[in-house]
Structure formats: C-alpha cells, structure tokens
C-alpha cells in the first residue's frame, strides 16, 4: 500500500486550478494552472512548502501540459480554456519554452502557435528525438507534433481511440515510454488508458491502438505519470 500526503494547498481565494506537474532536476516541482496563465515553482522538501509564481503568460487564460525537453528546459501549452465547459478557444493555443538551466530567472519564449488546434492539453516529447514534442488535442482527437527548433507542426496521429465521442475531452494525458516506441494515453470521454506504437523519430503511429484499462463507472481518467519502475499513476 501507499501513503498519500498533502504537500501544499493554494488558498481558497483566489481559486487556483492546478493542471499539470513537471519535476526539475533539482527536485522542485513546476505547476501549471488552468485558472490563470501561470506556472509556479514548489520545493516539496521544505517543512512548509510555498508556491512561488514563476511566470505569467500573455494573451491567454490557462496553462496546460508541460514536458522537459532537455535538462531544466520545459515546453508548456498555453491557451484559452473555459473552466465552466472545459472547452478551448480554437486558434488560441501555442507552445512556449521555459528555460531554467541558465539562471533562477526563467528565459521564456514562444516556440510556435498551433492555430488549428481546438484545445491542446497533454504534452510529451520523443525519447529518440527530444526536439519533437507531441501535444494532445482533446476535442479534435488528434496528436500534433511540433519541432521546437524549427517551429513546424503537423498532425502526427489521428485515431478513433483519441476521440471525445461527442463530449469535450477525448485524449487527455500522453507520455512516451522509456524505450521510445510506444505512446501511452488517457481518453477522458471514453474512460480508457491505452497505448499506440509510434516511430521514435517523428511520433507517427506504426500500428493500432490498444486499450489497457478502463475506468470504473462514474470515474474519468485525466493525466498520468510513469515512475522509474515502469508503473503508471493515473489521476482519476
């Protein structure tokens, strides 16, 4: 069995909705929020941890997925999301770089907009080609690839296993496994956790999707994490 403990809680006012978490090499956590276009820094080893505002992104309402593309350099999904409907504003989504490798003050720059996206959500990178990130479009049921050097994006995978089925959020979280040849994903609308084999260089599918687990009645799968032993921890 495992024991869960609370590390930190934001004050009730103003309301703060934590969307995603990334782990820095130092052990600090970077938190993205959908309630504001902000990212926070949190040291979970402190006796009384506090959340330090790291950056506020312009012209957006929310931050979503985050992934480390190189040591202490992160890509972040930024866009406009309604916390009432959980829908996104098409044309508002972009991916930014947050560089913490050079100083405690982040170097932040916009990598590229993905104007055709309806609501970008989860974000991961390829193991064999870390300059390529994969972003889940939850409403369209699409995974986009983005070259963070050139800024060129494309549809990497469109699959019925990603579909929202008439709801708002289909594919949600996504992560490439350590071997680099499988993309694992959750689908919130279908309540499924699955995988699809991919080309490790471009993220395109090389086979059919497989459902590994289905959420219990009344539950929904959100994003997830993979630990060093190959266990998958899904937020429900």
Automatic annotation (TrEMBL):
Report the source organism. Answer: Hyaloscypha variabilis (strain UAMH 11265 / GT02V1 / F)
Q: Which Pfam families match?
A: SGL
Which InterPro entries does the record associate with it? Answer: 6-blade_b-propeller_TolB-like, Hetero-Diels-Alderase-like, SGL
Q: Which residues form the SMP-30/Gluconolactonase/LRE-like region domain?
A: 170-236
Protein name stated in the entry: SMP-30/Gluconolactonase/LRE-like region domain-containing protein
Gene3D superfamilies assigned to the protein according to its UniProt record, in alphabetical order: TolB, C-terminal domain
- Source species taxonomy: Eukaryota, Fungi, Dikarya, Ascomycota, Pezizomycotina
């Amino acid at each position: 069995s495992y024991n869960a403990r609370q590390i930190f809680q934001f004050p009730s006012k103003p309301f703060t909705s934590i969307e995603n978490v990334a782990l820095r090499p130092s052990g600090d956590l970077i938190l993205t929020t959908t309630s504001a276009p902000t990212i926070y820094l949190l040291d979970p080893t402190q006796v009384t941890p506090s959340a330090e505002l790291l950056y506020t992104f312009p012209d957006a309402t929310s931050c979503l997925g985050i992934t480390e593309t190189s040591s202490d350099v992160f890509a972040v999904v930024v866009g406009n999301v309604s916390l009432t409907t959980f829908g996104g504003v098409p044309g508002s989504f972009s991916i930014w770089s947050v560089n913490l490798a050079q100083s405690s003050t982040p170097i932040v720059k916009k990598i590229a907009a993905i104007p055709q996206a309806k609501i970008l959500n989860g974000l991961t990178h390829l193991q064999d080609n870390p300059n390529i990130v994969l972003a889940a479009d939850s409403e369209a049921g699409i995974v986009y690839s983005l070259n963070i050097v050139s800024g060129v994006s494309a549809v990497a995978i469109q699959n019925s296993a990603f579909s929202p089925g008439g709801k708002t959020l289909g594919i949600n979280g996504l992560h490439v496994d350590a071997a680099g040849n499988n993309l694992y994903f959750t689908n919130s609308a279908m309540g499924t956790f699955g995988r699809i084999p991919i080309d490790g260089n471009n993220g395109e599918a090389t086979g059919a999707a497989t459902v590994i687990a289905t959420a219990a009645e009344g539950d929904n799968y959100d994003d997830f994490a993979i630990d060093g032993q190959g266990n998958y921890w899904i937020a429900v």
